[in-house]
């Protein structure tokens, strides 16, 4: 009986956790005060970014929310990177929190995977927008395309995204 109960618990846990292999609520416990803290947190930031970019928008997905909150905290305090958002990003995200969170994940992932270009604002913007558009184009990600996204996707398909973003 005891063995059967353990088996049932394992099956239920593995099924319910298959979509969320990690509990991202623990991110709030990570202390980010000194420069070393931000550097040590980079692996968590990269993991959060990849998680956000690999899951569809769902308001009920708390792990996405925890990940986005952590990214915001890290991006706001890291001394090693700076993140700039101009009005063109506002047009793309249309002030939609979910899209802003995805864009933050795109920027974080790009700078951490391309440290040599991390200080090149144009490269960061272009590659982050490209990643955002790729995410938005996948129907299963539940993104409602606004006018700015539609125009940017069209520019991307015509190889004119840099012109559209005014970063030539």
Protein described:
The longest helix has 17 residues, at 97-113. Helix content is 64%, strand content 0%. The chain starts with a helix and ends with a helix. The protein has helices at 2-17, 35-40, 42-54, 62-77, 87-93, 97-113, 121-137, 147-157, 161-165. It is mainly α and 168 residues long. The chain contains 9 helices and no strands.
Characteristic key phrases:
168 residues; mainly alpha; 9 helices; 0% strand; globular
SSE blueprint and pairings:
Layout: H1 2-17, H2 35-40, H3 42-54, H4 62-77, H5 87-93, H6 97-113, H7 121-137, H8 147-157, H9 161-165
Poorly predicted regions: 1-20
What percentage of amino acids are in beta strands?
under 5%
Cα end-to-end separation: 69 Å
Helix and strand run: HHHHHHHHH
Radius of gyration: 18 Å
Number of strands: 0
Please state the overall shape, judged from the principal axes of the Cα atoms: globular
The biggest sheet amounts to: none
Q: What's the rounded overall pLDDT mean? A: 88
Give the helix/strand class.
mainly alpha
Number of helical elements: 9
Q: Which range best describes the helical content: under 10%, 10-25%, 25-40%, 40-55%, 55-70% or over 70%?
A: 55-70%
Total count of domains: 1
């Amino acid at each position: 009986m005891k063995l059967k109960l353990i088996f049932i618990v394992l099956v239920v846990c593995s099924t319910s956790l298959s979509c969320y292999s990690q509990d991202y609520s623990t991110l709030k416990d990570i202390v980010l005060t000194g420069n070393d803290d931000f550097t040590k947190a980079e692996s968590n930031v990269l993991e959060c970014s990849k998680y956000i970019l690999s899951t569809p928008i769902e308001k009920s997905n708390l792990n996405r929310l925890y990940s986005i909150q952590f990214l915001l905290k890290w991006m706001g305090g890291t001394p090693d990177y700076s993140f700039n958002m101009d009005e063109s990003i506002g047009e793309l995200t249309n002030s939609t929190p979910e899209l802003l969170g995805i864009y933050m994940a795109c920027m974080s992932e790009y700078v951490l995977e391309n440290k040599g270009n991390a200080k090149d604002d144009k490269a960061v913007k272009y590659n982050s927008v490209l990643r955002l558009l790729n995410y938005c184009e996948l129907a299963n990600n539940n993104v409602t395309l606004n006018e700015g996204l539609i125009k940017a996707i069209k520019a991307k398909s015509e190889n004119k995204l840099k012109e559209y973003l005014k970063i030539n």
